[in-house]
Amino acid sequence: MSSVPDAAVGDELKQAKEMEDAEKYSFMSTLSKAPKKQIQFADDMQEFTKFPTKTGRRSLSRSISQSSTDSYSSAASYTDSSDDEVSPREKQQTNSKGSSNFCVKNIKQAEFGRREIEIAEQDMSALISLRKRAQGEKPLAGAKIVGCTHITAQTAVLIESLCALGAQCRWSACNIYSTQNEVAAALAEAGVAVFAWKGESEDDFWWCIDRCVNVDGWQANMILDDGGDLTHWVYKKYPNIFKKIRGIVEESVTGVHRLYQLSKAGKLCVPAMNVNDSVTKQKFDNLYCCRESILDGLKRTTDVMFGGKQVVVCGYGEVGKGCCAALKALGAIVYITEIDPICALQACMDGFRVVKLSEVIRQVDVVITCTGNKNVVTREHLDRMKNSCIVCNMGHSNTEIDVASLRTPELTWERVRSQVDHVIWPDGKRVVLLAEGRLLNLSCSTVPTFVLSITATTQALALIELYNAPEGRYKQDVYLLPKKMDEYVASLHLPSFDAHLTELTDDQAKYLGLNKNGPFKPNYYR
């Protein structure tokens, strides 16, 4: 076996060491240069953003953020971002049956929207049960319902249930950000005259409502509203149609308030059903829905961690109670503002500190409004907020936060992701505004399907009741849903939990002065 001289081995080792050092030097040199290249790239990007396109810097950032979030957020809607620049009002679209009696973002999304609706149906068994029970009787045959609600998979199940019960429906959205485009497309494909898309302008919003009402050869005789905008539009623009309406069903605090104002002024010429104050709406949708969806909306938009955060919730009604329970459970320090001493006392008994907004505005990390009022958070409050404070609204209308006061030359708006704006003060302070002050949960996330089944079933029964009521039962006023109907809605949902009710004996029923089959609560119970 041949051997290599020791000197030769030493030379080879030395050469290998030099090569290793050279590689190491080369690698380190690359690392040292890398930051410089990255900085240069950032500078190039800064140069790029100095010259925005015709649509402006905000439009650019908005289209980028939407395309990145739409892929995972059901509420954001699965929308092709290349389509964003073309208004649906400018498109010529037809469904597979050749009808063009609709206006949606993209009719081609109908198949995906149909799957969304089918998923929602699985958790809305009570509404589906009502649909099957009454489908043969067609209790809404001849009803021409014009509706203005959030257009989501859950409301689509309601709309299609109304159609199955014999009604003809035309629909628009009550919020410019809450429409699920694929669901609207599925409704249009099924033959519903729907006029709505996510991201409508104010002008689009009223145009869509008008397209639902102002139709040749079709006149609405029932209204299903959420917020009162549709009712207001028909009352103001089409008084002759308004006088012929057989009934109005309203589900929001804001809309109900408007109806009571009309009634007090003697201008309400049709009967109306106040669904918002029904037990099945107040105790379930307002409370339990908001308890879950407030966290969903805040997490999706800001990725905020709640433990240790200071949060002020304006209003301790059912919505406020739901929000506070969720925030407290995650370790947030929660303050309450209230005008009502009863609600304030409830907040105190639940362990929350009741304060004036001005007392804590400088220190809180999150401000949430849920009062149904206007100018709850003013420009003065916004000026005093600390850097990165999150501001959002859980009430129906966009009146609670004075967003208009922020649209001034000295403040800069920066869209950072879908429905999330940084409003920047001259000193660099940023306030994080969600959904431009509109309803957070339906604008930025989704809501629990099951609890919406309770509300949707209540709405359907209210429409059936008003449409079929004999003349004279309901006068030109605002009515609460009969408690018997409230209890029926609740009973339809109990099988989902395999719940078994206890029945009163004859003796017990006599002792309590009740009918064995209900109602078990007086009509004034809320």
UniProtKB/TrEMBL annotation:
Q: Where is the composition biased (Low complexity)?
A: 61-80
Region described as Disordered: spans on this chain? 1-27, 50-100
- What are its GO cellular component terms? cytosol
Chain residues that bind NAD(+): G317, E318, V319, G320, K321, G322, E338, N441
**EC nos:** 3.13.2.1
Q: Required co-factor?
A: NAD(+)
Q: Return the Basic and acidic residues bias intervals.
A: 11-24
Question: Which residues does the record give as substrate binding sites?
Answer: T152, D226, E251, K281, D285
Name the catalysed reactions. Answer: S-adenosyl-L-homocysteine + H2O = L-homocysteine + adenosine
Which CDD domains does this one have?
SAHH
Domain of life, per UniProt, equals Eukaryota
Q: Which pathway does this polypeptide act in?
A: Amino-acid biosynthesis; L-homocysteine biosynthesis; L-homocysteine from S-adenosyl-L-homocysteine: step 1/1
Looking at the keywords, is Coiled coil present?
no
Q: What is the protein name for this chain?
A: Adenosylhomocysteinase
Q: Which organism is it from?
A: Eublepharis macularius (Leopard gecko)
